[in-house]
C-alpha cells in the first residue's frame, strides 16, 4: 500500500465515521470486515460499478451527487428484494491529481445516504486509477429466511405495479447532453433531484415483503421494458401493460417511461386477491397498477382505446447514452 | 443493461457453472445473491480491485493468470482471518473490442481457483470500461463466532512467524520490467509460478485459527515491513526481526524479502507458550520463526552477529512499480 493510499484510507475512515454496532463487529482496518447478521436472516449481497464516463460525468455530476448515486444503486437492489441494508463496502480508484475536495465531497454524499438508511461503511479497497474515477459498491443486507422477494415468482393472473413515476432519468440526461458544459439549471427540479439524488425505495420494498403481498419484484435501473422482461423470463410468463396506466414523469414521453433507465423505482407483481391490500401510497411513494401477467409469453402494450395492442420489446439501456428509445 | 452486457452475463454464468448449495440459495440472476452462512458463524467480507496497468498488464499476464490472481487476492484476505470462503462476486468492466478469448481465459483462471477452494461465483456486475480491464472481487467467508484472527491481538513477548518464502514477487516483476515485451521465460520457475498463480494460504490460516495458536495474523500483499507495521500499530506494540531468520526466496535479496509486495504469505504472531505447537510445515507450507513482539514501539532488524540492529521502516509497496526498496 502506498503512503498516499494509506492516508486516503485514514481519511475515508474518519469521514465515514462508522462505528461498531450489533451487526458490524469490525469494520475498516483489518483484512476483512467481520459482521454478525440478525439471527434467522438470509444474507443479500449486491455489487454495482459506478464508472466515470459510463455511469456519471464529473462535469455533470457534483462529487456529492456521485457519492450519493453510487450507494443508491446498491441500496435499490436490496430494496428490490424487500431487504434491510446492513453495511456497505466501497472500492474506490482515483486518478492521480484528483483534488482532496472532490474526494471529500464524494464521501459526504456517500455517507449522508448511508446514515439515512443506517448502512455503515464497513470496508473496501483503494487504488490509483489508470483512467477516471472508478467506484464499485457492495451492499450487504438481509431478510428473514425464505422471505426475500426474487424475480421468478410472478404467476399468471398476477397484477403488475410500479412505484413513483417513470422517465425522469432520461429527461435529465438528455438535457445534460444538450447543454454539454457544466451543470445547467434544468426545467424540472423534481426530475433533476431524482436524477442527482435518487431515493432507493427501501421502505416500500420492506413494507411489501413484510406483508407478504408481492410475488416478484425488481428495481428499474435498466428501464421498465427491460426489467419487466427479466421478471417474465425468470417467471416463465408474459405481460400486458395498459398504456394509460403508465405513470409518465413530468416532461417525459411515453417512450421515456417505457424504456428509459437510471430510475430507482420498484416494479412488482402481486396475486389478484391482494389488490385491495395494496395502497395508493407506500411510505410516501405513489403506487400505480400497470397491467397483468399472462400465460402467453411476450409483452404487450395495450392502447388507450383498449381495442389494439402492440408488442413491447425490451430495450437495453445504455448508461449516459440516453439514446432515443425505439418506437413502440 | 445493454444486450452485449446481457450476453456477457450469460456467458459468465455458464462458465462459472455455480449451482445453489447449502450456503448459496440464489446466485447470479436476481437483484441480489441470497446466502445462508453456517449457523453460529460470523461473516468475513473483503473487496479487492485488480486494475489493468496497476495490478496487472495484459502484455505480461495471460488472461488465465489475471483471473486467478484477482480471486487469489480476496481469498488471501479470508486466509489471513483464519476463515473459510463461502462465495465470490466479480465486478468486471471490459474495454470495447476485447476478444471473447480473453474473457474466456480470464473466467477459466478465476473459476479453476474458485473450484479449488469451493467458492462459487455468486454474482457481481458488468460494464463497459472507459479504460483497460477493471475487476473488483468480493469474497465472502465465515468463521465461528469470535474466532476470526485480527491484526490487533499481538502481545509483548509473542513470537512472529511467516509462511513460505519472501521476495519472489518483486523478482518476477523486475524481470518482466527489464524485458518489456511479451512474457519471457524467467530464471526461477517456482517464483514465476508463485507470481502468476499464487496460492492463498487458506489451509494454513484455518489450521492456525482452529487450534487457537495465533494472536494476530495478516497476509503480506504489501510487503513484510508494511504488514508487520500494521500489526504493530493495531496491537500497539513493537517488533524485533532477526535477519538470518528471514526466508529469502531464491533469486531475491534481503531487501526484496523485507519490502517487496505481491506475496500471498501469512505473517502471524503467537504467544511464546505455543511455540512448540507450531510445526515447521502447515498444510505443506514451510513456517519460519522471524522474531519477537516488544513493548517498545518501532520495528528493528537485528544483524546476523546479533550485536547490532537497525530500524526497519515500513516501505509502501506500489503495485507493478517494483521500485528498488529503500536501503536498510
List the helices and strands and how they pair.
2 copies of one chain form a homodimer.
Chain A: H1 3-16, E1 24-26, E2 33-35, E3 41-51, H2 63-80, E4 84-94, H3 100-116, E5 121-128, E6 134-144, E7 159-163, H4 168-178, H5 189-196, H6 202-210, E8 216-219, H7 224-235, E9 238-242, H8 254-259, E10 266-270, E11 281-282, E12 285-294, E13 299-302, E14 309-311
Parallel strand pairs in A: 4-5, 9-13
Antiparallel strand pairs in A: 1-2, 3-6, 4-6, 7-10, 7-12, 8-10, 9-12, 11-12, 13-14
Helix pairs in contact in A: 2-3, 2-6, 4-5
What does this structure look like?
2 copies of one chain form a homodimer. Chain A is built from 8 helices and 14 strands. Chain A is an alpha+beta fold and 328 residues long. Chain A folds into 2 domains: 3-144, 60s Ribosomal Protein L30, Chain: A; 159-311, Phosphoribosyl-aminoimidazole Synthetase, Chain A, domain 2 (Alpha-Beta Complex). In chain A, the strands form 3 sheets. In chain A, strands 7, 8, 9, 10, 11, 12, 13 and 14 form an 8-stranded mixed β-sheet that branches. In chain A, helix 3 (100-116) links the parallel strand 4 (84-94) and strand 5 (121-128). In chain A, helix 2 (63-80) packs parallel to helix 3, helix 2 packs parallel to helix 6 and helix 4 (168-178) crosses helix 5. Chain A is globular. The N and C termini of chain A lie far apart (53 Å). At the A-B interface, helix 1, strand 2, strand 3, helix 2 and strand 4 of A face helix 1, strand 2, strand 3, helix 2 and strand 4 of B. Strand 2 of chain A pairs antiparallel with strand 3 of chain B.
Amino acid at each position: 500500500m502506498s503512503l498516499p493510499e494509506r492516508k486516503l484510507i485514514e481519511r475515508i475512515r474518519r469521514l465515514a465515521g462508522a462505528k461498531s454496532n450489533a451487526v458490524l463487529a469490525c469494520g475498516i482496518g483489518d483484512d476483512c470486515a467481520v459482521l454478525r447478521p440478525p439471527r434467522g436472516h438470509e444474507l443479500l449481497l449486491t455489487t454495482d460499478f459506478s464508472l466515470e464516463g459510463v455511469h456519471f460525468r464529473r462535469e455533470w455530476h457534483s462529487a456529492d451527487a456521485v457519492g450519493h448515486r453510487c450507494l443508491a444503486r446498491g441500496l435499490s437492489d436490496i430494496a428490490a428484494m424487500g431487504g434491510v441494508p446492513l453495511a456497505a463496502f466501497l472500492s474506490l480508484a482515483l486518478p492521480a491529481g484528483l483534488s482532496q475536495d472532490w474526494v471529500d465531497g464524494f464521501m459526504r454524499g456517500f455517507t449522508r445516504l448511508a446514515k439515512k438508511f443506517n448502512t455503515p461503511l464497513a470496508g473496501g479497497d483503494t487504488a490509483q486509477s489508470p483512467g477516471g474515477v472508478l467506484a464499485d459498491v457492495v451492499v450487504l443486507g438481509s431478510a428473514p429466511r425464505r422471505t426475500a422477494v426474487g424475480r421468478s415468482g410472478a404467476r399468471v393472473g398476477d397484477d403488475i405495479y410500479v412505484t413513483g413515476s417513470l422517465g425522469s432519468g432520461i429527461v435529465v440526461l438528455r438535457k445534460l447532453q444538450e447543454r454539454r458544459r457544466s451543470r445547467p439549471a434544468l426545467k424540472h427540479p423534481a426530475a433533476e433531484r431524482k436524477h442527482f439524488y435518487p431515493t432507493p425505495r427501501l421502505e416500500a420494498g420492506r413494507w411489501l415483503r413484510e406483508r407478504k403481498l408481492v410475488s416478484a419484484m425488481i428495481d428499474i435501473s435498466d428501464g421498465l421494458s427491460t426489467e419487466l422482461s427479466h421478471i417474465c423470463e425468470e417467471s416463465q410468463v408474459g405481460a400486458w401493460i395498459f398504456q394509460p396506466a403508465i405513470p409518465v414523469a413530468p416532461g417525459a414521453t411515453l417512450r421515456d417511461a417505457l424504456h428509459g433507465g437510471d430510475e430507482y423505482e420498484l416494479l412488482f407483481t402481486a396475486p389478484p386477491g391482494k389488490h385491495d391490500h395494496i395502497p395508493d401510497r407506500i411510505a410516501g411513494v405513489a403506487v400505480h397498477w400497470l397491467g397483468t401477467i399472462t400465460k402467453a409469453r411476450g409483452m404487450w402494450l395495450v392502447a388507450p382505446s383498449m381495442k389494439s395492442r402492440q408488442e413491447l420489446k425490451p430495450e437495453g439501456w445504455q448508461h449516459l447514452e440516453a439514446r432515443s428509445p425505439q418506437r413502440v
